């Protein structure tokens, strides 16, 4: 009872305005340098991996030639440590001339010529986290203008070395300054991550009006512990976070680390599945030149990408936390469909979890089930007992189509309310 009321209230509060730049109506997808390549500027000893023009060109080539772009992975995003330590004589930021000999504008052109987009990074403080020139209040206009002149498509505004008062002024000011350039530039705000991610310090209505996405929580690392920590924080705070998300405005649990060193195949599927449930931006931070085929096939799974990119843009939720260590997640999707994820926190062996769709609050009917990672299809009546076998730290993910008899009022009980309300929200934005 209680649960349904909360969903209703949250769905209602989605009826607010999103940042009016027309961008990112579904979660943005692409590649971002930070987690994998950090602040490696040692091009002399590590030419292939240092933060340089050639790294971004290599990634762009892979995105364009290896099937990523067609799936939606179009942003190539620079993070910290790209700039010169000095502004130029007109006071503008400039790329490090040794590592980016062609400059950022040329790099943006390179992306655009291949149907890709370029993202860049700045920081609210006097210095970035890595110690490069920041974009404090008095530099906001000139830097926004510079990024627009370079034809940059996205801007991540970090918060190191700034205080709460400056952030309160700076994040909205940058939003205005980007808008004033006339160039649509996707805007990623790290603001909430610097304010603990929760109300009353964080005002998610305001964030949705000024930013396209925002980092709510700490940086991801290349480890399963880091993934678990992020999953726990986002789903423990889901009642606050779900209503904040919608077309043009997304919670960002940080980069995908699939294809790096820290995750098993099952754990990689878990990250992909739960990022899709969360309607999270999908920015890979990995080496696309050497990624193995198993990691690639998880990141290129069309069904999980389709779930992530669902046009209604309703963030999903955790609906069950069993004593056995099994957790169940659910996300409502367009066309009366939905996604379910069964996740195991266990460390022993595959766990056989028995349930029925009606126990998960699906209403009377016969549902078509697509298993996202095995490609198997089955039909299930709401009342039919079934058992899913979930690997340790792994998931089983299902796409569930509408019941076979659509006129019989047969869909997930909570679903009707979320759908009805979300249909109002895009129109009002
Ligand atoms: C199903 O709905 C009931 C009543 O609204 C609620 O108490 C229960 O938590 C829901 N269960 C799941 C798994 O969503
Ligand atoms: C700037 O904001 C106005 C009003 O919200 C909007 O109509 C316009 O599309 C925005 N322009 C850009 C480039 O974001
Ligand atoms: C924040 O930093 C500014 C300097 O940019 C300073 O004037 C102000 O007092 C600081 N505010 C707080 C609350 O520390
Ligand atoms: C949060 O932001 C919204 C939109 O900008 C504003 O209307 C509201 O008053 C703010 N809430 C608080 C508690 O400051
Ligand atoms: C969704 O379900 C409702 C209620 O059963 C039905 O009226 C509607 O036609 C369905 N929509 C789609 C796209 O199947």
TrEMBL record:
<dbReference type="InterPro" id="IPR017853">
    <property type="entry name" value="GH"/>
</dbReference>
<feature type="signal peptide">
    <location>
        <begin position="1"/>
        <end position="18"/>
    </location>
</feature>
<keyword id="KW-1015">Disulfide bond</keyword>
<feature type="domain" description="Alpha galactosidase A C-terminal">
    <location>
        <begin position="313"/>
        <end position="394"/>
    </location>
</feature>
<dbReference type="GO" id="GO:0005764">
    <property type="term" value="C:lysosome"/>
</dbReference>
<dbReference type="Pfam" id="PF16499">
    <property type="entry name" value="Melibiase_2"/>
</dbReference>
<keyword id="KW-0326">Glycosidase</keyword>
<dbReference type="InterPro" id="IPR013780">
    <property type="entry name" value="Glyco_hydro_b"/>
</dbReference>
<dbReference type="InterPro" id="IPR035373">
    <property type="entry name" value="Melibiase/NAGA_C"/>
</dbReference>
<comment type="subunit">
    <text>Homodimer.</text>
</comment>
<dbReference type="GO" id="GO:0019377">
    <property type="term" value="P:glycolipid catabolic process"/>
</dbReference>
<keyword id="KW-0732">Signal</keyword>
<dbReference type="Pfam" id="PF17450">
    <property type="entry name" value="Melibiase_2_C"/>
</dbReference>
<dbReference type="GO" id="GO:0004557">
    <property type="term" value="F:alpha-galactosidase activity"/>
</dbReference>
<dbReference type="GO" id="GO:0016020">
    <property type="term" value="C:membrane"/>
</dbReference>
<dbReference type="GO" id="GO:0009311">
    <property type="term" value="P:oligosaccharide metabolic process"/>
</dbReference>
<feature type="compositionally biased region" description="Polar residues">
    <location>
        <begin position="419"/>
        <end position="429"/>
    </location>
</feature>
<dbReference type="InterPro" id="IPR002241">
    <property type="entry name" value="Glyco_hydro_27"/>
</dbReference>
<feature type="region of interest" description="Disordered">
    <location>
        <begin position="409"/>
        <end position="429"/>
    </location>
</feature>
<protein>
    <recommendedName>
        <fullName>Alpha-galactosidase</fullName>
        <ecNumber>3.2.1.-</ecNumber>
    </recommendedName>
</protein>
<keyword id="KW-0458">Lysosome</keyword>
<keyword id="KW-0443">Lipid metabolism</keyword>
<keyword id="KW-0378">Hydrolase</keyword>
<comment type="similarity">
    <text>Belongs to the glycosyl hydrolase 27 family.</text>
</comment>
<dbReference type="InterPro" id="IPR013785">
    <property type="entry name" value="Aldolase_TIM"/>
</dbReference>
<dbReference type="InterPro" id="IPR000111">
    <property type="entry name" value="Glyco_hydro_27/36_CS"/>
</dbReference>
<keyword id="KW-0325">Glycoprotein</keyword>
<dbReference type="GO" id="GO:0016139">
    <property type="term" value="P:glycoside catabolic process"/>
</dbReference>
